[in-house]
Hints:
This protein has 359 residues and is an alpha/beta fold. The chain has 10 helices and 19 strands. α8 (227-236) crosses α9 (248-256).
Amino acid sequence: MKRYLVLENGNVYEGEAMGASGSVISEIVFTTAMTAYLETLTDPSYKGQAVVQTFPLIGNYGIITPDMESSKINVSGYIVREVCDLPSNFRCETDLDTFLKEQGIPGLKGIDTRALTKCLRESGTMNGAICDRPDEFSLDEIKAYKIKDPVEEVTTPEEKVVSPEGEVKFKVAMFDFGIKNNIARELAKRACEVHLLPADTDAAKVMEIAPDGIFLSNGPGDPEDNIKAIETMKVLKDSGIPIMGICLGHQILALAHGFKTSKLKYGHRGANHPVKNLETGRVYITSQNHGYQVESNSIDTNIAKEYFVNVNDGTNEGIKYLDKPAYSVQFHPEACGGPKDTEFLFDNFISMMENREEK
Length: 359
């Protein structure tokens, strides 16, 4: 069965249907990751977006539910060049097409994903419709689409606790803006009891938990839309409690300090993005998924300094605060399936909590 992708600029890409039936309008973004398609599908940061895989063959090891980053698929649609119908892996439970059908997510295969990616790189991220007829939606309808309240849709509805297998050494208050499961797992591996909190949790509730550390997770959408979280962090940033943020959490912490954010032309999404540590000069390969940046020239150098920068385009990839035990990064040090180059940042967070205990 034929299926189409219609972009807001009028470009039409014809392919074949996969996944669930039905049509969807969403923001169209691409990722350059060669593996971890299951983690991509289930990453809450993709809420409201349809993902294009630049790697041509997807689905070769099937679906392995323990590797999911959340309980369900979060992308609105999925676009690939070729799908493997006969996956091979000793952990495989089902194939990609079946998984998309079960979760009600429409997909599109067989299109020229290289041409589509070049279009998005040159013109910038834009809206598009995955549909059964190229005239199903008007271009005005496609252009009018906005991602509304995505954090509210993916955050935990109530407090949850993730406990380590052994002794609890630290208690961490985790703001869940759309957390990837492996962030909590990395902290639990380091003897942390993680209290997952709804995104709109206020500062008083956090202080009731009496955490040793505060963590701000990744998540979807425009960081400036998270008004309550920003106001909460304006209070908590001066608490003296160690703070770490990832991705959206990085941006929210920056906004709480008065810095500015803006939308990138086509974002950074993939598992091969180089970032440079400005303290050591060392370059790391990182996994990334974001469409917004903290503007480097908005960082107040009296209270903070750039920690990492993107080697490709020079954009900010991390901030270290000078007047408090806090830092944040734009990339994903917990990445599954990799790279693992920057996992040490979790150890640095643990060290900050240890140093606070000693004082």
